[in-house]
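Hello again,

I reread your note about wanting to compare the complex against the isolated chains. To keep things tidy I'm splitting this into two emails, and this first one only covers the full assembly. Below are the input lines as submitted, including protein chains and any nucleic acid or small-molecule components. They are followed by the predicted structure of everything together. The single-chain runs will come separately.
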Amino acid sequence: MRLASVNTVTLGVFGWSSYEPEEGRFTFDWLDRAMDRAAAVGQRVILATPSGAKPPWLGRRYAEARRIDRNGQREPYGGRHNHCWSSPVYREKVALINRRLAERYAAHPALGMWHLSNELSGECYCILCSDAFRAWLRERYGTLAALNEAWTSSVWSHGYAAWEEIEPRDGAVDALAVDYRRFNTEQALDFLKWELAPLRELTPEVPCTTNFMGLFSGFDYARVAQMLDVVSEDQYPAYDGTSPDTWRSAVAVSMKGDLYRAMKPGRPWMLMESCPEAPSWKQPMRAKRPDVHRTEMLQALAHGAEGTCYFQWRKSRGGSEKFHGAVVDHVGHEHTRTFRAVAELGREYERLGAVLGSATPAEVALVYDWEIRWAFDRSEGPDQRNGAYERVAVEHYRPFWEAGISVDVLDSNRSFDGYRVLVTPQLFLLKPGVAARIRRFVEDGGTWVASLYTGYCDAANRCFLGGFPGDGLGEVLGIWNEECDVLGDAETRGLRAVDNPILRVAGTLRAVEALEVLHARGATVLAEHAGDYYAGHPALTAHAFGRGHAYYLGARLDEPSLDAFYRPLLDKLGLRRNLDARLPRGVTVQRRVHGESEFLFVMNFTCVEQRVELGSRVLRRLTDDARVEGTLVLEPFASAVLATT
Ligand code: GLA
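Full-complex prediction:
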């Protein structure tokens, strides 16, 4: 580890059966040794609570700790990440093992952070969890009449006369499905609070985290983040170093970085798991090509991470992940390509200290919201092909990434103050107060970009009456959306740019997948439909509202069409580019700032050499102090961290 400049290790994830091999018999020998050795070389330990996987004795003796699945079956013992959230026995056992860990290591010099459980996921439908759902509904709605009203439960004869009649698995009630996800988030949070209680009591100064999984849709991570001290996330981009399209997946990974960075403003996030080689679940499991791993790690730092960790240090000899990439291979020594790459990066990290604690100022906010995704996914009707909510969010993020413009990715409850541009891809569900905040944002001079499926449903996933976009957003956008048409996979509909004084969109414009038939109610038309029965109806609009502008893209657009809209918009707004240059496709520049110092992460996510023109700027490559000016040449998948001072 010293050879690889490792200064932090995560220990104990899934360690339970070795700490408590039989109920009540505790042995911490190996952990003691590992903690002591870490302390001896000045490493900090992120110590996990072991609840992510239960020991066999627990699963066998306490059946209630095992989940009941959607079919009402108690799951057999096995696997991981599958305990009942409510089980009193499981909670009691977790509290006990956590207390033992906290008591034992509270004063240990290596203890740096708590890592609660691991990759929370799943749901349980046992009596306790189902009753907890009903209690949560009672709290949320107060009366059955209010719940019936909110859920429109008279549809398919679901008018409830008693709380006990509510069946959490009932897929027929779309509002129930959304509420169930909200509830399940609170369940997981409640479980985490329970886990945390003994740790907070015995180690109040030690921060806590749990590792998120990208845009995993099971829990509202924005809500879970509120109870954590540090946000951490697992990323396995596994970029294919041979594919010309790889940069597109890099866009999605960057968006996640911006989401996690922005989750707790002013607080660092970290990459908890990543892999210097290919992860074993990735098929085909291609070897990571030179430089890919380095750029993956620098990409996390570029988006605000304050550290990157690996899963895993060393490959296990057996077990389900024996071929999963690791820093140390089965061969057992350091003379491998992977180890050398990790060690080299470790040495470079030692020169990147100045980046720590720096911020990423962004003028643009983009909304990604779990509740909206749930409502969208659970509503029959809207076009959901290929994970549309997540995918479309990335599609709208891409133009900023390509231009090297920093973005904060936020859930819709967050304040939009201080941003110049707000992008809300498919803002399908409006939480209370969101429409009012957007209205204020535009009135105060902001630029709002909304896309189709905006303002269809309220927080109960009920449609707004009186025309979409609802809750007053039609007025802000100056449009009424009369109906929606969905196209086949290979179908497109041409759009025609319209001359106008606000924004000239130029180039070929095409709607794909889904479009709306709009009426301008005060908005200026930027482009209209060129064919079909909606010919002449607005497709892209802009509305001067208050001191700002509200733009509406009433169709999903293919990539060139999105560029035809965003490029002139970004130019018009004069948003700050991290590097004042047109970047080659597949290259982005992200920026972190520390007082007067500025750090530019220039990254090439393509399998060919790229050249970035630096103009008049004279920069210093942080990793070797080389002076960089003129043209920066980046080998395939290479990146550079450049400083201005
Ligand atoms: C997850 C888990 C790890 C490991 C990796 C493999 O992120 O948290 O325990 O299984 O996947 O990629």
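For quick reference: The longest helix spans residues 174-202.

B.
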